[in-house]
Predict the structure.
Amino acid sequence: MLYRALELTLAPALRAVYRPTVSGAEHVPTTGPVILAANHQSFADEFFIPLGARRQVLYFAKAEYFTTPGLRGRAMAAFFHGMGQVPVARSDTRSAAAVIEIGVEVLQDGGALGIFPEGTRSPDGRMYKGKTGVIRVALETGAPVIPVVMSGTEAVNPPGSRLWHFGRVRITVCPPLDFSRYRDFADDRQVVRSATDELMWVLANNSGQEYVDSYAADVKARLLAAQAS
């Protein structure tokens, strides 16, 4: 219900104010399971990707968005629940398996699942090593993986800022990737890693971002440690 209300209000407002340019929207099926795997430079990415997909996209969201105390916290939790977001406790080592299970359920219900393979927003505009969850979900469900490249959102809502600014957003929907040849090797870590790297190469090649063979979360942790010392 809330999503429908936002679709009628927020989506037209985003189109009118930011005039996002979308290319390749025809690659996204209008119905049925699909995984939209995107680069991640801004919180705003989650709002613009559905404009390019032209359908509701479900994401995994930080558990903190659902547990913040007070009136603001309750409003935030209601918003994310209404949008169909799924809470994930990133610090919980068991969450990785839970994420895959929930992702499989979303796709088995015919939904569009939005995943940011980097696991978190880029701390410096570069693209970081992808986590393998997206491929594990794809291999278990057979859902197509469609790379989505976002550009301009980092200026609209810079990391660490609560304010939104005027800017131009470009959404590039790439042709779907077929990983069906790997389905018999879903338990092979090297194969899953190779398929994940293939996806990240497509994202990096189409975004123009410099690729870093490290996890973004590790880089953020080192930056925080350096600031604290």
About this structure: The beta strands are 21-23, 34-38, 58-62, 86-88, 112-115, 127-128, 145-151, 170-173, 211-212.
